[in-house]
């Protein structure tokens, strides 16, 4: 049975058969072709049996291995490596098929190459998952053929390899290096002018050109007989919570990724930055119920807890209960904290329904409401209308876009900080708002 399951006939063999059939047909009129056709048939049968012997004389003629990372990063390009080698004594033609997880919906994977004995080759390809969860890779299938290319033998390796897809670890690492080197003002993050001295005192140091002369410490200057200045740092160990709305408004997809996953990826990178800047970070996910609550803690190892919780967050089809969120925060978060609320409002009436709860939260905490521009509408607005129907569509799109700006103005009127952003710019703008609030001492 193993022989039958691994035995396949190459397409080249059927081309030989068609040539032989043509010879037999022509021999009806050209008589001398008849014995030649039979000789070619016997030769083909001999080559067929010889090719079978070449491929099956060696027990395990091909070795192959798929190398997967321990975790795949959602919405990012993830490299997959395949290593293969041959034990056949001849040049082997291989065709590799990797059974990708069903989430990718890709059924045309095929890689062809040739390899000689003692040689080891590597084939790399990339995948981009757009959903969190478990991804199961099926069989790694290799078809081997001899130089005759009449028969091919099937080899199967590594059935059902599971790898989890976590929130964007790659994006988190990108901002991690910037936080360590204190270079978060790069990659599009704007520099914030610091107002006053709301920061904690750190040390007294020698004056160097560029220091603020308003921070001169005259007593220390008199003692040292040289200019000395006070150095300040941002206040540390302040609680910061990322609050993610998991209701139906966050199910809208952009570039194959749901708004919820954009928020989760941003939350992971943002939490890492706050921890590196010595603040406490926590997490709340809610819709009809409070699905996840992680108290704010200032430990680097706390990031693993947040990562696991973000991995398990699901999307619901219900309207989110902001009243329940307010009650939970009132009971659980007693100290003034920075609250970054990831949600979305498509119409100003939806905002006004939740506005009383947002105002109540902003009285005790520093609330930042983050919601999304509809980038598909922006594309429609930027295109020229060529007919009446296109004019209608463009007018409606402009109205929806204006509503978003009106919602932002409405929140700012009540002193609530806002971030209106395109989904792909969410992480940059969330971190930027955090740096602005810290620099201005609003928390």
């Amino acid at each position: 049975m193993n022989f039958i399951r691994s035995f396949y006939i190459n397409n080249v063999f059927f081309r030989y058969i068609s040539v032989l059939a043509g010879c037999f047909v022509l021999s009806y009129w050209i008589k001398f072709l008849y014995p030649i056709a039979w000789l070619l048939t016997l030769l083909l049968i001999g080559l067929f049996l010889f090719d079978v012997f070449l491929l099956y004389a060696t027990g395990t003629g091909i070795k192959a291995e798929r190398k997967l990372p321990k975790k795949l990063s959602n919405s990012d390009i993830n490299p997959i490596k395949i290593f293969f080698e041959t034990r056949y004594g001849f040049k082997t033609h291989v065709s590799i098929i990797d059974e990708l997880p069903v989430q990718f919906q890709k059924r045309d994977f095929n890689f062809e190459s040739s390899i000689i004995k003692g040689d080891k080759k590597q084939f790399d390809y990339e995948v981009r998952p757009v959903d969190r969860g478990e991804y199961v890779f099926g069989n790694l299938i290799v078809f081997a053929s001899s130089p005759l290319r009449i028969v091919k033998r099937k080899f199967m390796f590594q059935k059902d390899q599971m790898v989890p897809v976590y929130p964007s670890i790659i994006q988190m690492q990108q901002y991690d290096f910037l936080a360590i080197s204190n270079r978060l003002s790069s990659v599009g993050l704007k520099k914030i002018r610091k107002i006053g001295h709301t920061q904690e005192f750190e040390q007294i140091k020698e004056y160097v050109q560029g220091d603020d002369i308003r921070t001169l410490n005259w007593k220390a200057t008199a003692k040292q007989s040289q200019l000395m200045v006070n150095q300040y740092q941002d206040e540390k160990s302040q609680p910061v919570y990322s609050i993610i709305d998991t209701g139906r408004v966050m199910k809208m997809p952009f570039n194959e990724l749901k708004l919820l996953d954009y928020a989760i990826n941003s939350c992971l990178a943002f939490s890492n930055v706050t921890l590196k800047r010595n603040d406490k970070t926590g997490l709340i996910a809610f819709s009809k119920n409070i699905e996840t609550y992680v108290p704010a803690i200032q430990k680097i190892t706390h990031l693993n807890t947040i990562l696991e919780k973000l991995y398990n967050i699901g999307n619901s089809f219900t309207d989110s209960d902001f009243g329940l969120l307010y009650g939970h925060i009132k009971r659980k978060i007693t100290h003034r904290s920075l609250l970054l609320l990831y949600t979305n409002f498509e119409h100003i009436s939806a905002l006004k329904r939740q506005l009383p709860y947002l105002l109540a939260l902003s009285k005790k905490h520093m609330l930042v409401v983050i919601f999304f521009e509809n980038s598909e509408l922006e594309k429609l607005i930027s295109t020229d209308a060529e007919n009446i129907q296109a004019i209608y569509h463009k007018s409606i799109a402009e109205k929806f876009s204006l509503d978003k700006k009106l919602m932002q103005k409405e929140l700012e009127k009540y002193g609530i900080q806002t971030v209106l952003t395109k989904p792909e710019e969410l992480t940059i703008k969330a971190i930027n708002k955090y740096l602005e609030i810290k620099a201005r001492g609003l928390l």
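Confidence is low (pLDDT under 50) at residues 192-198. The first strand starts at residue 7 and ends at 9.
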